[in-house]
Write a structure and sequence with these properties.
By secondary structure, this protein is α/β, with parallel strands linked by helices. The protein is built from 15 helices and 19 strands. It folds into two domains: about 180 residues, 3-Layer(aba) Sandwich (Rossmann fold), CATH 3.40.50; about 200 residues, CoaB-like (Rossmann fold).
Length: about 400
Amino acid sequence: MILSGKRILLGVCGGIAAYKAPALLRLLTKKNAIVRVVLTEGAEAFIGPLTFEALSQEKVFCQRDFLSPPPGLIPHTHLGRFAQAIVVAPATASFLATLSCGNAQSLLVASIMASKARVLICPAMNVSMWEHPAVRENVAKLLSWGYEVLCPGEGELACGELGPGRLPEEETIISHLERLLAPQDFSAKKVLITAGPTREPLDAVRFISNRSSGKMGLELAKAAWKRGAEVTLIHGPLAISPPPFLKTLPVETTSEMAEAVLSRLAEIDVLIMAAAVADYRPVRVYPGKMKKNSPSLTISLERTTDILSEVTKHKSPGQIIVGFAAEEKDCLRQEALRKLREKGLDLIIANDITRPETGFEVETNEVYLFFADGRETHIPLASKEEVAWKILDAVKELF
């Protein structure tokens, strides 16, 4: 969505992680970005230009284009003007040194120096090289120039050693690139988001829960982070893992989620309660595992903490509180307005759980927004990523 139609220059350096660059290119093109690739001489030793040309449907530029350019084309200024953002993945220690001292003898470095685009550098190298003072000094200099440097991931490296040095996952690189290009209209805002179900234990192995996957809350957290917010995601058991760039706090029960939210309430500007919390919990939790000793079983339940009602009792002036309501179509508007009023919310977002494309465990949603000032609006069926973006547009109106 953010990358659609954006002109991205992808630089690939000569490290073993170069074999991952085609997967990154493929993901960029799936997001409808227009991508041109620059290969260093070292990169060509690992992977040829034909692979990148097939994936990008664009000419791939190599060092020979810099040394012997075609008539009428100055490759580095051409590429510098083309780019709205530049990603170097993988970036080697040699590249970091060359760029940090302004040595424009390679096409990639010259293109970066000839461009005013935002730059994202993704180093990948041996752990000892990454920790070397020269590399650290070069990274610090590039950061001081306003370049974004994404720290490498940890794990087993191609050399067999363990530690930081792996090229970050493609999805992580894409998310940081999207943050570079997204409007930073949530900058300096502290946003707390809840996601996923909660679980209320019956015994040591069984629990009461619901079908929430947490995808909607997770997309909201990612979108807020990309738009510049300082985000904390409090989540129950999720169907998918949160990305590493999000600050997360896993919880299990509604009581744990309530405690986590209320303890952070005074510090935040926006709370978005997208979690599907359990409304009831067993009065008694059986020790160990319950046995099948009788043909039937009666379980007594009691109400859990109504987190939103507690939150609004302690709400500070200027804070924005947003709730969610998963309802059946016939009572969706009525129930959403009731919850909006009774819980004292600024905004409530309702969706129809009876439709297969807008219920739990799916990739799409369609929601209705009800504001405390009486306004109502509708976000048509779209991916949860798109819906999250439009929900944040509505939240921004309340700042």
